[in-house]
Design a protein that fits this description.
With 630 residues, the chain is of the alpha/beta class. The chain folds into 2 domains: 2-304, no CATH class; 310-622, P-loop containing nucleotide triphosphate hydrolases (Rossmann fold). The strands form 5 sheets. The chain has a 5-stranded parallel β-sheet with strand order 8-9-7-10-11. Strands 3-5-4-6 form a 4-stranded antiparallel β-sheet. It has a two-stranded antiparallel sheet with strand order 1-2. α11 packs antiparallel against α12 (238-248).
């Protein structure tokens, strides 16, 4: 994980340096170093110390700068963290060069040359958790050089400060920082274990945008399709293509097909001017190359940055998937004061889709697409909501929602074993009739072509329980959401409350959202997108249930006594429901959680009936409250 979070080590510190605030930069770097130390992340701590060295240098505190710049590479080298060490050495070389210590600079340069400790066949962690062969030292060197050359948007070097706005054509001096999208996606896959890093990253993004605004500029997200650009150059200018290849290496190997970044340009520039300029500056500043002609439209893109505060929303149904979010959406949609951006029965991924979840700052195009996707009631309502069950499991998404100051969040939780069975049924269960299973939404279509990959029994969950537990994990997100939003902005409801007391539950939910009137008289609350009956063999196999829930009879399989696979999930959900008692008491939910009741313990769930026929059943099943009335 260290190599993934190194580029985010002290981003706010670099932004302060770029804006000419070395004192603030030093404080941020020291805070980042402390956060990494608490996380036990040596490379992150070393990277933050390197940023502190640059801050000391800007303050004229040479001894402190040299001490920190020298210590970071030593600490990393001792632990064999070669790539992080190379990055720290580059920072040290900047410090030595600035102080005129040519001998020490040369020594660092020699250390950065190919060494016997890096073999040609070594594999290095790269993008999206992929390890790639280290074909040459040049690829590794490029990765480390980019981390320093693609500095914050406000200037190529911290000591230059923010770029002055230009009154003429788009020729302002600006810099491009490497895209955080893929790196941030890997950070968010670490669940909510890195809140300090995410706060630092969001703070940095806002400071960069602020710095550009103070300089009289506009901030843009720019994309470069380097692979396509190099391919075209090979046909029109082979010598330039070779020079670009020598400078950056094979784009498909080292940079990926598209490199995204942020560019700060003058207010007078439009997107069609900014994108070619950004490419020109990247190649000119990094590779010393001049473009004979501007890149083609399909090779570059530019979209001006906006702010999360410009999103017009009042609340979100943020998850958890497979727990009843569709029922919450459809029932709340019946309230006269509540509306949803995508109407009834639809999920909205216009703001937080797979390719957009890692944005620290939204673009104007993204917000425009979100507004244009509105498919609600079409008339004025009191409150507007968004339904996206993936938000609650992606820290970058709910941190963005946190910045939308007034937006409230509804999170639905349920029995972990119920969710686990449903996930297994979708992805790995060997259904007797795959075509029928796909029709009933019991399986995803891709399994029709991979039948050998399926498992005939949920007993397979026991053998790979760690993998499934990781896919199931939600408790850490709940804890972080509670810390972030508090009772004023977070409402956690258990599926048991929706099933057994629908009238009271939905009424309290609507009132908490701010609705000033009740649901219509005679309102029938329904349960959607679920299926009764045996979905897999789980409920026919008490042994598997016990092992997954309690590990009570694990010894029958010869396993060592272990902690229950889902015990921490049950505990986290129970604590969350107890925390919610201050605004909404849910005794039915607590009873199910304490006794670890699953759908296998509910006879009515296992008998097929006139409704609840598939996971795409939009007709819905009327829900009876505990008194027996609909």
């Amino acid at each position: 994980m260290a190599h993934l979070i190194l580029p985010l080590a002290s981003p706010a510190s670099r932004s302060h340096l770029a804006c000419g605030r070395p004192v603030e930069a030093l404080k941020e770097a020291q805070a980042a170093a402390t956060a990494f130390k608490e996380l036990g992340d040596v490379p992150g701590q070393a990277a933050a110390s390197s940023s502190a060295a640059l801050a000391h240098l800007a303050l004229g505190q040479s001894p402190e700068a040299v001490a920190l710049a020298s210590k970071a590479p030593q600490d990393l080298a001792e632990r064999g963290l070669r790539r992080a060490c190379a990055n720290a050495l580059l920072v040290a070389s900047r410090v030595y060069l600035k102080l005129g210590e040519r001998d020490r600079t040369m020594q660092v340069a020699l250390e950065l040359q190919p060494s016997s400790s890096l073999g040609a066949n070594d594999r290095m962690p790269w993008r999206d958790g992929i390890s790639v062969p280290l074909r040459s030292w040049k690829v590794l060197r490029l990765a480390n050089k980019l981390a320093n050359w693609l500095m914050p948007i406000s200037g190529l070097h911290a000591e230059r400060g923010c770029p002055p706005p230009s009154d003429r054509a788009c020729t302002t001096r600006a810099a491009i920082r490497s895209d955080r999208r893929r790196k941030a996606r890997r950070v968010q896959e670490g669940k909510a274990a890195l809140p300090s890093l995410l706060r630092i990253a969001f703070r940095r993004a806002m400071l960069e945008k602020e710095c550009c605004l103070v300089a009289g500029g506009r901030s843009w997200e720019v994309g470069f399709h380097l692979a396509a650009f190099v391919e075209r150059l090979r046909n029109s200018n082979a010598s330039l293509a070779r020079a670009l290849y020598d400078c950056m290496g094979d784009p498909n190997d080292s940079l990926g097909e598209v490199l995204y970044g942020i560019f700060c340009g003058p207010k007078v520039c439009e997107d069609f001017e900014i994108a070619p300029l950004a490419m020109e500056r990247l190649l000119g500043n990094f590779c010393n190359l001049q473009l004979p002609e501007p890149p083609a439209n399909e090779e570059v893109s530019a979209d001006e940055l906006s702010s999360w505060k410009n999103v017009s929303l009042d609340f979100v149904v943020a998850g958890n998937a497979r727990c009843g979010t569709q029922s919450v959406l459809n029932n709340l949609y019946q309230h006269p004061s509540l509306d949803f951006t995508s109407g009834k029965s639809n999920e909205d991924y216009s703001l937080f889709s797979q390719g957009q979840m890692s944005k620290f700052v939204p673009t104007k195009k993204l917000l425009g697409t979100h507004r244009a996707s509105y498919r609600g009631k079409g008339h004025d309502t009191q409150l507007l909501g968004l339904n996206n069950p993936g938000i609650a499991t992606y820290p970058l998404s709910y941190y963005a929602l946190y910045l939308m100051k007034k937006v409230k969040m509804i999170v639905v939780v349920c029995d972990p074993l119920r969710r686990l069975e449903k996930l297994f049924m979708y992805q790995h269960y060997c259904h007797e009739n795959f075509d029928e299973a796909v029709r009933r939404f019991d399986a995803v279509p891709r399994h029709l072509n991979h039948r050998k990959d399926c498992d005939p029994s949920t007993r397979a969950l026991i053998g790979v329980r760690r993998m499934w537990a990781k896919a199931q994990a939600f408790g850490a997100h709940l804890e972080e959401l509670i810390k972030l939003l508090g009772h004023e902005r977070l409402f956690i409801v258990h599926q048991a409350s929706l099933r057994k007391k629908p009238g009271e539950t939905y009424g309290r939910m609507a009132k908490w959202l701010g609705a000033t009137e009740p649901f219509p008289g005679g309102m029938i609350f329904k349960r959607y997108n679920f299926r009764r009956g045996h979905r897999t063999d789980l409920c026919k196999n008490s042994t598997v249930q016990n092992v997954l829930q309690l590990a009570r009879i694990a010894y029958l399989f010869g396993f060592a006594l272990m902690k229950a696979m889902l015990a921490s999930e049950y505990a986290s959900i129970q604590l969350a429901i107890q925390w919610q008692e201050q605004t909404f008491f849910q005794p039915e939910a607590l009873l199910e959680l304490r006794s670890k009741q699953s759908r296998c313990d509910m006879s009515e769930e296992l008998v097929e009936g006139p409704c609840g026929l598939s996971d795409d059943d939009q007709s819905g099943c009327p829900q009876l409250d505990v008194a027996g009335a609909v």
